[in-house]
Amino acid sequence: MEKRFKITAQEGLHARPCTLLVTAASSFSSDVQLTHNETTVNLKSIMGVMAQGISPGALVTISAKGEDEGAAINRVTEVITTEGIGEEC
After folding, report:
1. Which pLDDT value is given to residue 65?
2. What DSSP string describes the chain?
3. Does domain 2-88 have CATH number 3.30.450.40?
4. Are 30 and 65 in contact (CB under 8 A)?
5. pTM assigned to the model
6. pLDDT of 17-66, one tens digit each?
7. Pairwise CA distance, residues 33 & 20, whole Å
8. What is the mean predicted confidence (pLDDT) over 82-86?
9. Residue 16 CB: number of other CB atoms within 10 A?
10. Active site (catalytic) residues
11. Is residue 7 within 8 Å of residue 57, measured between CB atoms?
12. Please, what is the end-to-end C-alpha distance for the chain in angstroms?
């Protein structure tokens, strides 16, 4: 299961939004990943996500695989949209 997002946060994915996303993803047993420019990282790894250097306007794909993948995608989507990090494409 996956969803695409456009990052709308003025600073892109810096420390605060990365922390929110990692915290949301970490509460699920499924593998949750973020893909940007054909590079995929574990969304449960703050260093992996921050290392992507994702800027405003970037398109990212969030994917999840496992027993609670639907709940994981829904929670990450909620964080992205309600915290002003991005919008669904």
Report:
1. 98
2. -EEEEEE--TT-S-HHHHHHHHHHHHTSSSEEEEEETTEEEETT-HHHHHTT-PPTT-EEEEEEESTTHHHHHHHHHHHHHHTTSEEE-
3. no
4. yes
5. 0.95
6. 999 999 999 999 999 999 999 999 999 999 999 999 999 999 999 999 99
7. 14
8. 97
9. 12
10. 14
11. yes
12. 15
The structure tokens 């992507």 sit at 52
Residue 44 has a pLDDT of 98
Distance CA 62, CA 58 (A): 13
82 vs 88: CA distance, rounded Å: 12
Alpha-carbon span 66 to 48, nearest angstrom: 20
> What tokens does 16 get?
């605060």
pLDDT of residue 43: 98
